[in-house]
Amino acid sequence: MGSRRYDSRTTIFSPEGRLYQVEYALEAISHAGTAIGILASDGIVLAAERKVTSKLLEQDTSAEKMYILNDSTVCAVAGITSDASILVNSARVQAQRYLRTYGQEIPCEQLVRQLSDIKQGYTQHGGLRPFGVSFIYAGWDDERGFQLYQSNPSGNYSGWKATSMGANNTSASTLLKQDFKDDANLEDSCELAIKVLSKTMDNANLSSEKLEFATVGLDTNGKVYHKIWKPSDIDALLKKTGLVKEEEDEDKTD
Amino acid sequence: MDIVLGITTKDAVIIATSKAAVRGISILKVTDDKTRQLSDNSLMAFTGEAGDTVQFAELIQANARLYSMRNGVDLSPTAISNFTRNELANALRSRKPFQVNVLIAGFDKKTNKSSLNWIDYLAANVSLPYAAHGYASYYTLSLLDRHHKKDMNLEEGLELLKACIAELQKRIPFDFKGVYVKIVDKDGVRDLDDIE
Amino acid sequence: MSNPQEINGGAAVAMVGKDCVAIACDLRMGSSALGVSNDFEKIFNYGNVYLGLTGLATDVLTLSDVFKFKTNLYKMREERAIEPQTFANLVSSTLYEKRFGPYFVGPIVAGINSVDNKPFICGFDLIGCIDFAKDFIVSGTASDQLYGMCESLWEPGLEADDLFETISQALLNGLDRDALSGWGAVVYIITKEKVVKRLLKTRQD
């Protein structure tokens, strides 16, 4: 392959017009745990697979793939977590800077764009590798209501009704395309999210240990809230959907 | 001393600014407009150091427009006020502060509310039902205290403004050559015919 | 007009009670003798911490925004709200950062520590020297009057209701002897279960 001559630098196009480093970054992400986001009529749900590598691993109490960016936005991460935390931190600072300057929360898309602009910079300014992370953002603002975005290492971002990233994201997308309903509420969307993940995860035994959930919605006063779910919340959802039982049964028949 | 007055009504803000541009003992101009439109639904009126005023107003105007171009939406009047306050506050502790006092009148189309912000050169920012800068405030605030009502309509607001102008013309020791009157409401910013 | 801390006027006070704290301020914002606003609150809330800021109005606004900025980031990093003691040190270091061009403010902090449930209050000078107190803290253009009122009214172990009465009377009567403070007042009574905010009617001159 002719890629060898052109892939060591992020900033140089190959003769076929490709940026290999960016493509490698995308490749790295496609092995990460699956994450999906679904836009509902009254909120947004983010769900992600957490890959437990060892029983000896200290299970961190805090989520490792869900990050709060400000009072109205959360995001899910797929890719190199350490890269993500750099970007998450700068997004948090940007969001607070906007709040201080204008006295209002930053509009969701502006926050996404600022982060994507940083990512883009690393595909053009030489000597450094691009950020190996994709994000799914769930946010709300008073201009455009609930919004779901996805960004990748190239610095491109786009808005979605439902989207996925990470391992098996093509099958997740197919499942989402099949089952997404425009008028579904947050509760139904949470169930859809878990249904999709149950089919894309390698290990069919769903449990709160391997899942992370986050939701964005409006409270009774019409104020935006976000919630990164506790393991008990996820267990309750698993129980409600009845997916745990079914999966176990299938395993036995297999 | 320039006159800058603002009165909120139920769904509009009235801004009045004196037409005279004074320097020392001379009136240099009788058609001086001491306002700049910042966005579709907000207006800044200003007084202070000659030179600083227009420079500062146009700096804010340019920033508000740049924001609109970049983001496809206008900043809300409260956001513009906050931004303006920050610019003044940063300038205050710089080598050369802006010596500018402003009123920012706006109508927020999202909340359907009119707003009036009083900001002085020290960058103290307060939202008020009616406001004035400089000596004009000593003559008019008591009138406004007595007669201003929260839910006044535009006509009542203009009547009140006329009373304020009459008081100023009677008591201020020089001719400020009348005032320009502007209305900020849901339809944007518009000029009104002169008040005698 | 020469002293920046006395241009806009305003006063604030905080007190400790039995398993509760109270913090209160007036609502005036003026330009020397001229009153400009009667709706200028000087108490700001950051999680379970309350900050009173008197002094130059522009610095009151700047600092309240700066602390919003810093505590929001703190909350996301630590995944918990900031404690009163920690916040007091944040205020101190933020003010000392501007040692040779200070913010002209007199901050006071009140809150209940969520770990040991102990009440906490403290005050600062404009460059961040912390004044820890077990009884009360006063600040603003009426601080001399407030010292006198608190000195005579405050006693140890006040229950929440009595603390409300004590801090209100101390503030109200302190304000009446200061031309640059008044135009309404607010009081926060903070217990570990709940926070009650009350607006006080005062003379309007």
Model description:
Chain C: This is Proteasome subunit beta. The complex is a heterotrimer of chains A (254), B (196) and C (205). Chain A is an alpha+beta fold and 254 residues long. In chain A, 37% of the residues lie in helices and 24% in strands. Chain A has a single domain (17-51, 64-241), classed as Aminohydrolase, N-terminal nucleophile (Ntn) domain (Glutamine Phosphoribosylpyrophosphate, subunit 1, domain 1, 4-Layer Sandwich), CATH 3.60.20.10. Chain A has helices at residues 20-29, 81-102, 108-121, 169-179, 186-200, 231-241, 243-253; strands at 35-40, 43-49, 66-70, 73-79, 133-141, 145-151, 157-159, 162-165, 211-218, 224-228. In chain A, strands 8-1-2-9-10 form a five-stranded antiparallel sheet. In chain A, strands 3-4-5-6-7 form a five-stranded antiparallel sheet. In chain A, a hairpin with a 3-residue loop joins strand 5 and strand 6 (145-151). Chain B is of the alpha+beta class and 196 residues long. Chain B has a single domain, classed as Aminohydrolase, N-terminal nucleophile (Ntn) domain (Glutamine Phosphoribosylpyrophosphate, subunit 1, domain 1), CATH 3.60.20.10. Chain B contains four helices and twelve strands, in the order ββββββααββββααββ. In chain B, the strands form three sheets. Chain B has a five-stranded antiparallel sheet, with helices on one face. Chain B has a five-stranded antiparallel sheet with strand order 5-6-7-8-9, covered by helices on one side. Chain B has a two-stranded antiparallel sheet with strand order 3-4. In chain B, helix 3 (135-147) packs across helix 4. Chain B is globular and about 45 Å long. Chain C has one domain: Glutamine Phosphoribosylpyrophosphate, subunit 1, domain 1, CATH 3.60.20. Chain C contains four helices and twelve strands, in the order ββββββααββββααββ. In chain C, the strands form three sheets. A five-stranded antiparallel sheet of chain C has the order 10-1-2-11-12, covered by helices on one side. A five-stranded antiparallel sheet of chain C has the order 5-6-7-8-9, with helices on one face. Chain C has a two-stranded antiparallel sheet with strand order 3-4. In chain C, helix 3 runs antiparallel to helix 4. Chains in contact: A-B, A-C, B-C. The B-C interface holds B 85, 88-89, 92-93, 118, 120, 122-128, 131, 137-138, 141 and C 7-8, 29, 31, 34, 36-37, 39-40, 56-58, 61-62, 101.
